[in-house]
Amino acid sequence: MNREYGPERLAGQGLDSNQYESGDRAILALLDGTRARDEVDLVATWRNGAYEIWSRRGMIRFKRTIDDHGELQFETIERFGENPVANQDPFAISTIEEEIDGARRSGHPTEDANRAFLEPQAITHPYALERIAQVFDSPRGPDLIVSPKAFTYGIQPGQHGALDVVQSRAPLIFSGPGVRLGSVKLMARHVDVAPTIAELLDFPKIEGHDAAGRPAQVYLKRQDGRALDEIADSSAARAERVYMILLDGLSHSELVYQLSNNVASIPNLATLVDRGAMLSHGSIVNFPSITWPSHSTILTGAWCGHHDVVNPTFHLREHRETVPIQGNIFETERFLNSAVETLYEMFKRVKGAGAITASIHEPQGRGADHAVFERRIVGDKVRLKALTQQMSGDISPRWMADDNPNLRREEVVDIRGMAQVRVLFEHCGDNPPVFVAHEFVLTDGAGHDYGPHHEGLREALYRTDRRIGELFEMLRARGLFESTLFVVTSDHGMAAQQVELKANPAAEPAAIGMKGVFAEPMIYLRDLALEIERARDLRSIRVTVMDNDHLPDGEHPPLNGARVVLERADGRVLAEATTSVEGRVAFATPADLSDRELRIVVEHEDFNSRHVRGDGASLHEDIRRILYGAGGAVRA
């Protein structure tokens, strides 16, 4: 019999019983009550023993379970209207032509891939249940997570972050020793990348934990993915090192287009494809499909709900602290969960403490000897500075001609990364790094600023390919190229945006006065916890008002200054008071009214209001009826 498997470390994420009212109000604001109704694809949460996915076309509640073989299973237990994630095909919409066809089927016909706007009925949501459920495993997970429509996610021509297949598909290539050559159609996720590297290098398994959190023989301490042994050539020699190339924000469909139509402009990536295995439909990334969480997933083999870097900005409830980890950039490895293991750490464990590992502008560098974002530099800093200045003239004139100084700055970042690589390998000499993760940012910046298939993006890709060629020359000169396994991927896809909408749907509940931390696409509600006690003589009632978010010691602090109103069921006010420093008020109650006939309204300027009956039962709108009508429920 399957065993239910809810959030692993439940500590405030999702909606608890004090949040049903505000949670439903926020869902309604996103799907019906504001302009967001035309911009939101899905809203997901955990509540009352099940995960929920809401959309205008329907909703489901589902449970995550573990079967007798230890595998994760997902069971839908309730449905209203359509199942909004019924189609989870990971192979859909993998080319530019399919994106344009999807736009036509969406009612947005175009021949311009940068205006290919995809409605929910034209897309799929690969691994939707697994990817949504995992978010709520982390105490840093949200109360609600929003997935906008594919084209309604910001004011830039290209964007990512949502659950849909276009924003969630990244290219994936393994090239070098131990790899079976050719294009392969394979269901793959980014949690599979790290264990595949371990298998291709014939690393030993260890006692760790699998995707179900169970003790298991795995390659990394927490391993949510599997090794893609379909691409392994067990009869071939093993690589001596790994060089991972992360083309930030590059869509799989754009890479496929260039390989098919303009291969001469990306000869070095084409070389890797020719001597390796390219997944024909790429790999499905973390949700949310955003830089900082996705990079940590690639580097650990664990979903963000397990490595705890859940979003570029996340909220620590117990500390009332919002952490803009992507905005900070530097010294962020400390936010990675100690229960996961990075590839840098795995290589050290297997190859020994003297093995050198490096992060070249990679957003996750824990365990790397060289990691500039963690202020660790291997090599001569004076030489690094001089080389960076020497190389800094190699910048495309297009960026300034297009009045786009941001891309000029991003190309400078990639130049600095190239200088780091040269100094690193010079310094290491006869002990070259065994693992390098090298992030190229220019493709992401260009995809955002121009669109996923614009000539500006292609200029960025061509220039990045040239830099990859310089890496190859350096490795060949040192006799290292043939013995290196190259892994090429991205952290997410990139979808065309209707920029004139200026859409920011996850923030819409704040526009109607809801209180919370709105860290797009995550929402952390600020709610009130109530304790209602009837006196023994049944003639008075006491209300204690607390912050629903606990402190580090687990206590919920009482709230001073909350306004509490006691009403009849018809709304007539019987009494009102303001809470003391203990968070309490007390009222005498009419002898002829039962608790069910009393209403209590609690308001505080920093929190969402509460409406409950005298017996504590929540009073709020039935959003199923509002969104889907009175009937239509289907239960499993």
Description:
- The chain is α+β, with helices and mostly antiparallel strands and 636 residues long.
- It folds into 3 domains: 147 residues, no CATH class; 296 residues, 3-Layer(aba) Sandwich (Alkaline Phosphatase, subunit A); 97 residues, Immunoglobulin-like, CATH 2.60.40.3580.
- 27% of the residues lie in helices and 24% in strands.
- The strands form 8 sheets. Strands 1, 2, 3, 4, 5, 6, 23, 24 and 32 form a 9-stranded antiparallel β-sheet that branches. Strands 10-14-9-21-13-20-18-19 form an 8-stranded mixed β-sheet, sandwiched between helices. Strands 28-27-30-31 form a 4-stranded antiparallel β-sheet, with no helix packed on it.
- Strand 3 and strand 4 form a beta hairpin.
- Helix 14 packs antiparallel against helix 15 and helix 14 runs parallel beside helix 16.
- The longest helix has 24 residues.
- It starts with a strand and ends with a strand.
- The mean pLDDT is 95.
Task: Please give a quick description of this structure.
By secondary structure, this protein is α+β, with helices and mostly antiparallel strands. It is built from 18 helices and 32 strands. The mean pLDDT is 95.
